[in-house]
Amino acid sequence: MKLATYRYEGKRQVGVVDAANATVAPLDLSGDQARRGVASLIGLEALPATGAPVALADVTLEAPLPRPDRNVFCVGKNYFEHAHEFAKSGFDSSAAKGAVPSEPIIFSKVPDCVVGPEAEVLIDPGVSDAIDYEAELAVIIGKGGRGIAKADAMEHVWGYTIVNDVTARDLQGRYSQWIVGKSQDTFCPMGPWAVTRDALDIADTAIRCTVNGELRQDSNTGLLIFDIPTIIATISAGVTLNPGDVIATGTPAGVGVGFEPPKYLRPGDVVEVEIAGIGKLRNTCRRWSA
What we know:
This protein is mostly beta strands.
C-alpha cells in the first residue's frame, strides 16, 4: 500500500495512493494527526475510512514524514562499489580504517532539512560548491525497541520511502563528523510517498538516480553490505528506536564525487531518485538567495 502526505485546498492530509489511476484518497484524520504525516498511521490496527479520491495532479505532495520527531539515522558506505569510490575521493574521514567498513557507519541528518518531492534543493555557493546527491532506500520504524535482535528486526519495520541524502562534500571532509555537511537546509528530500513493509521485496529492489536525465546510479538494495536487520540491531544496541524513526540505508556507486572530475550539482539541475515498488522522487536545485 502507498500512503502520501499532501496539501489539498490549503489543508494537510494523509491518503491512500492509487498510482495506476494517479489519485489519492484522503483518510479520516484530525488536523493534529495529519500534522505528523504517515507517522500518524503507525500502530493503528486498521486504517481510518477514506474519502473521495482526488487527482494527484491537484495536490501538493509533501515528505511522508514532513518533520520527523528526531534526526534521520543514516548509514555510510553501505554498498561495496560506493565504499571504494568514496574512499578514493579525499573526503572520507573514515578511510584510514579501510574502504569497506567492518561495522555500520552511523550518522544523522537534522529533521529540519527534510523537504518533499518537487521541493527545491538550495545551493549556497558561499557555504559549499561541492554539493552531491545520494539515492537511498529509507526504513520507517513501526515498533520501537532497544536491543533489538537481528532475527526480530523486520517486525519493527512499518514501511519504506525514498531519501536523497544530499551532501556538501567539502564540509563533510573538513569536519570529523558529517552532520554539518549532511544537514544543510533542504538536504533531505523524501518521498514521493511511503509504502508499507509488505509492498516491497528489499532483497531484490532496483534503485536508480538520474541528473538531468543522465543515469548516474543503478543498483539494487540486495547489494547492501549491512542489511536492514543488521542496521536496526546496531542502532538499537543502546539507542531506543521509536515509532516513526527514519533510517536511510546508504547509497550505491555513482555519486558525483566518484567521477573524474566530480559531477557536483549546480543550480537548475534536476535530480530523480527511483526505487522500484515505491516511486520516483524528483527535485530541482536552485541557488540560495537571502
